[in-house]
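Entry for the shared binder. Reason: the reviewer on the internal report wants the predicted structure included alongside the sequence.
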Amino acid sequence: MHAPDPAATLTALRGARPDLVVPFERALPGARAAVLGRLWGAYTREPIPGVRRREPGAVHLDAGVLTGPADAAEPYAPAPDGLTVRLDGVPYTDPAALARALGHPGFAVEVDNSVANLALARTAPARAPTLTGTLAELEQSVVDGHPLHPCCRTRIGMSTPEVLRYAPEHRPVVRLHVVRVPPARWYGGGPPLLLVHPWQREHVLDAYPWLVPVGRQPARPLMSLRTMALPGGAVHVKTAVDVTMTSAVRTVSPAAVRNGPAVTALLRSLATPGLDVLAEDRAGAVLVDGEPSRSLAYLRRRVPRLAPGEVAVPFAALAAAVRAGHPLPDPLGFFTALAGVLLDPLLHLLRHGVALEAHGQNTLVVLRDGHPTRLLYRDFGGVRISPAALRRAGVEAPPLHGDLATDDPDALRAKLLAAAVSGTLAEQVAAFAHAYSIMPELLWTRAARPELRDGPLPVKATTAMRLATDPLTDVWASLPNPMAG
């Protein structure tokens, strides 16, 4: 299994892309600091086994005492050059070396791969983050990946040349394979034609000789490497790729194939003001041994039409543009409108029993003439829906597959707040505060809503989850609530 560390990546570049050797070497210290900052922050707040107690700048563990700069552990804090974290006084600037010292050799392999791919991402041709352009261009401007996860750029299973060939930050155009499926082996809607990522075609499809490639379709990878924009930009396709990216192997589950059209119809029936969804109108999978295969599946999304003067910007791309100093004539007014566009539709849905996992990749703001006007949402895999709450609102929930259904109000609230507030909104606060010298407290005051004032804020404990026996079970940490009181 390919998991190139920085040394292996450098060797591969010397053979395949010698022009990137020097840029990669220059980017490596910053990439190590960025990933180390994410790891250090995780140890200061997450329920990681072996943590005994915490104090500012120090975490007492079974394995020793971890110390580092307290400000670098704050969520979304930029990593300073030369960031150093110490374990019992021994300095570490390499996050993988620290992970090994903490007794996590398998996790260290992933962290090494994350560092290598993050440094590689930072060698991509410069395109200053902006708030104009096509959606594909905006998505590909996000270089650093998940803002809190040490595995922000893992592609376990891909070689370095494959990362350069397929990763969105390197701005490739790829060719999706159109594969004919025997009708008796097709599961889902539409004709029995499977859209297959080229990596999957090269590494998986040969095991199924009865699947017949019949054509290819050009596409551009979006922020999620396995999700593609087809020519014209009106259709996105989510493909299966048996590669571990960030925290999971990115296949398409049978539940996702079945849930998409039903959840689309539900969200549209609720007619939430200020919100539109990327409708999942077609999906399919190949039956293998009588069951839908996660590795041989896809789904299609429709992108809502934009009016003249409108541009759709993923929140992660917005934060990147703000951090890069994108000029805004009224940053505080823009943020105030942005907070309303984000929070008001999501809280409306939560009151009806629907919690969207509105993180920076799944959630887009529509700017009209540069001003936030409405919200777009995509990807229903992390949604949580309460059939009981919907019934109280006079709405019947559709059949739901997998883990989407829950009547636990705390689970619904945690799902929404961890993504939308501790994640998406908090990243915007950090970016706006740093770029425009606005006090974070003032920004949080502009975002405060009555439903958000009680208790601490949940945040997904991504490192604790990655170290757990079942890395796909949600684990939460808590952050102080800046809107409390």
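Summary line for the report: The mean pLDDT is 95.
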